[in-house]
Automatic annotation (TrEMBL), chain A:
This is Sarcosine oxidase subunit gamma. Pfam families: SoxG (PF04268). SUPFAM superfamilies: Folate-binding domain. Gene3D superfamilies: Heterotetrameric sarcosine oxidase, Probable tRNA modification gtpase trme, domain 1.
TrEMBL record, chain B:
It comes from Albidovulum marisflavi. It holds the Pfam family SoxD. This is Sarcosine oxidase subunit delta. InterPro entries: SoxD (IPR006279), SoxD_sf (IPR038561).
Length: 186, 107
């Protein structure tokens, strides 16, 4: 098998916030009845977490389950574990109306770090950061493309986009986080 | 700026996260309908100055279609509700009637 690489080779930029491509991540779209017992079991086995409530992300170490819509989850696992996780999810949901798809290679992941990280995102996403809850995943747009992000650390956000627009998203993040571009200068 | 709360995920989405889908509650006329009915279904739309019921899609969010009642003149939003609804909910209609006493009502 060929060696998998992320779209931008882990490039990073340091402005008033540090933005970086985070590398490969196993991502699996799961659709079905999120309230079913089979779904609860399948998600627990895949990520170690509960099925997330609406707009929430449940994180356990390097795995996570995020609520994408009333009938869709995004299951995240280490990149190398994605295919095994797909097989396990398929088995756990057999007989249920469901869809499981490995979308790892269709996505790019970025981190935005620093105490001013929200300011880099505020300029790109029409999101009220004042009402953004802990443990919330916010699907939105970053300038002209679809994106989703959540708070992944004290001063860190993780943002996901389609891989086909990774260069565009990194361009946005780099420009948005340039020194002098703070929204609330100290 | 128009802000609509998606009834499926609860996000207060501003206009650019949404896709407009035109008039809500259209009755579909397909095979077996008269030419007039089919033409009306395809082309005839309400265009009120005032209370309007519309389809919107939370395109940059959960992806679901939902319905909204708003005033086309002032952009006041009366409410949003599930797309699995044949006509505007009674409580929403009452709320609109209270705010717009001259509204002719939903037909
Ligand atoms: Zn929504």
């Amino acid at each position: 098998m060929s060696k998998a690489v992320s779209a931008l080779g882990g490039v990073s930029h340091k402005g008033f916030a540090e933005v970086a491509e985070a590398g490969l991540r196993g991502m699996i779209t799961v659709r079905g009845d999120l309230s079913s017992a089979a779904m609860k079991k399948a998600v627990k086995a895949a990520t170690g977490t509960a099925v997330p409530a609406a707009r929430r992300i449940e994180i356990d170490g390097d795995k996570a389950a995020a609520w994408m819509s009333p009938d869709e989850l995004l299951v995240m696992v280490p990149y190398e574990g994605a295919q095994d996780a797909v097989a396990a999810l398929e088995k756990a949901l057999a007989g249920e109306h469901h869809l499981v798809a490995d979308v790892s290679d269709a996505r790019s992941v970025f981190t935005v770090k620093g105490s001013k990280a929200p300011e880099a995102l505020m300029k790109l996403c029409p999101v009220d950061f004042g009402t953004l809850a802990e443990g919330e995943i916010r699907r939105t747009r970053a300038a002209q493309v679809a994106a989703a992000f959540w708070k992944s650390g004290a001063d860190e956000f993780t943002l996901v986009s389609f891989r086909s627009v990774a260069g565009y998203v990194m361009g946005l993040l780099e420009v948005s986080s340039r020194k002098g571009g703070e929204i609330f200068p100290a | 700026m128009l802000t609509l709360e998606c009834p499926y995920c609860g996000v207060k989405a501003e206009e650019t996260e949404l896709q407009a889908g035109g008039e809500a509650h259209l009755k579909r006329y397909g095979p077996g309908s008269s030419d007039d009915e089919f033409e009306s279904y395809l082309f005839m739309r309400k265009n009120p100055k005032g209370v309007h019921f519309e389809r919107w899609r939370h395109a940059y969010g959960c992806g679901k279609w939902f319905l909204a009642a708003r005033c086309t003149a002032t952009l006041e939003v009366f409410g949003t509700y599930s797309a699995q609804t044949k006509e505007p909910p009674a409580d929403l209609q009452a709320k609109i009637k209270a705010k717009r006493p001259n509204w002719e009502g939903y037909k």
